[in-house]
Amino acid sequence: MSEDASAQKGIGDAEHLKVLGYEDSFRRSMSLWANFALGFTYLSPLVGVYSLFALALSTGGPPSIFWLLIVGTGQLLVALIFGEVVSQYPIAGGIYPWTRRLWGKRYAWMASWVYIWALIVTITAVAEFGSGFLGSLIDAPVTKEVTLGLTVLLLLVAFGFNFSGTKMLGRVARIGLAAELIGVIGVGLYLLIFQRKQEFSVFFDGMGVQGDGSYLAAFLGAALAGLFLFYGFEACGDVAEEVTNPAKRIPTAMIMTILVGGVSALFSFGGYVMAAPDLQAIVNGSIADPIPAILESSLGPVGAKLFLVVAVLAFLSCVLSLQAAASRLLFSFGRDGMIPGHAWISHVSARRAVPVNALIVACSIPLLLSVFIYVGGNSLLTQITSFAVIGIYAAFQAVVLAALRQRIKGWRPAGPFNLGLIGGYVVNIGALVYGIFAMILLAVPGSSGVFLDDWIVLIGFGVVVVSGLLYLFIGKPHSASRQPEGDAIAIAALLRAHPDHADHP
To answer: According to Swiss-Prot or TrEMBL, what is its membrane topology (predicted)?
Structure first.
């Protein structure tokens, strides 16, 4: 029996969706591997490690690598809860439909408002950072105009691939996956095995980053090394209605994203540390962008150029995956009538079977933000992206908290991916505790003495939350929506009563 035939045992995809109150709008052309590739390229260990390597080492020294293990473990708990939720609710849009069906439409609106802005800002930031790699690859001058032009190019190319349909999205995501694995695992292993200039004991040496204070404070300050890296697995669920047998495959893809992404990041981070010719200078902060020098000394000019090709592919795939996730969230919002212009934004192209108008929005706003950054300078990029990660963590924890609330009320997840009664409680509580801990670390003000720089994370997050609350209570965007909400227990009972459900007698 083929994989697809055996995968269809149990409730069929269309029938499962019908129980949830929806009809199929997409083509289910995304396989498990394409779904995993989408999440992995969104998580993008190459992008994350490159962006944070210098900051992590100058703040916490080589032991900051252990944050990859700590955060990876915590986010795996979150991914397990997401797996249970998407297994019962394999609906496009991810965070929004999950929070709506677990709690209610106002709760879902706020969680999604924060999440969509975090996603849109992240799209902009990744395209901006990727323009630097593209510029280096083509030897373009480093000017504001060139950066803007290359950023726009990355955004439009990613939009073009997304616009072409789900199959193209899956193909490019798989290419990005291959590029990522070469760039992080391949290069990382090469550096660890053939270019090692440090002893492995260096990972237990703070190398003086603590100064006269406690190393614990320095280590906690380096938490960003992991916190900025381990999200993206939720994108696997954003395209749930485009995946065959999503109730089983998406939880698997989420877990694979965390595990493979974590191992890749460890090899990459560790390889750069071990191959650094002057590690103390990086730790001291005297080398602002150390990875190009490490690659140049280890791979030579040609090897470093090839790595730039891999890096550009990784950044493009990351932008592509982010746009896909944002557009499906917007589509899901629009389909339920939760935003102005909902009929337009929820339109799905009959020819391409993608939410084209939602994609236009997911590309247009980052284009506008790129122009603002061009006018305001790179400091504006730092300011508008500072709240993105805490916004994503807040949205994640909105799902985790809502799942725990339903569990206390008697919910037993009815999807094929199930942690069981005791396991579900243990993992759910662990995920919530981890998430609160992570948000506290992200929200702690800096100590530079410059008010805006020290408090920008909380200021940005506060602006988004307050504006969302004002619009929610004044504009009442949820008032016209009539789709189900807070029905986790009832839907679980319906699914279990279905004649094709595994638990049905």
So the answer is: Multi-pass membrane protein
281 and 287 in contact (C-beta within 8 Å)? Answer: yes
Whole-angstrom CA distances from 223 to 193, 230, 504 are 27, 12, 46
CATH class assigned to 3-478: mainly alpha
Q: What is d(CA 292, CA 127) in angstroms, rounded to the nearest whole number?
A: 19
pTM assigned to the model: 0.89
At 30, phi and psi to the nearest 5? -100, 125
> What mean pLDDT, rounded, does the chain reach?
88
Q: Give φ, ψ of 416 to 5 degrees.
A: -65, -25
The first and second tokens of residue 66, run together, are 């252990």
Q: What is the pLDDT of residue 3?
A: 37
Helix (H) or strand (E) holding 401: helix 388-408
Q: Structure tokens of 346?
A: 């929820």
The one-character DSSP state at 103 is: T
Residue 451: pLDDT band by 50, 70, 90 thresholds? confident
Residue 246 corresponds to which tokens in the numbers above? 């999503």
Q: Which residues contact 376 (CB under 8 A, 6 or more apart)?
A: none
What are the backbone dihedrals phi and psi of residue 96, each rounded to the nearest 5 degrees, phi first? -65, -60
DSSP 335-366: HTT-STTHHHHT---TTT-S-HHHHHHHHHHH
Q: Which amino acid is at 446?
A: G
For the chain, the structural domain boundaries read 3-478
The CA R_g of the chain, rounded to the nearest whole Å, is: 22
DSSP assignment of 216-271, as one string? HHHHHHTTHHHHTTS--TTHHHHTGGGBSSHHHHHHHHHHHHHHHHHHHHHHHHHH
Contact 52, 193 (CB under 8 A): no
User: Which residues are 129's β-sheet partners?
Assistant: none
Coarse DSSP helix, strand, coil percentages of the chain, rounded to the nearest 5 percent: 75, 0, 25
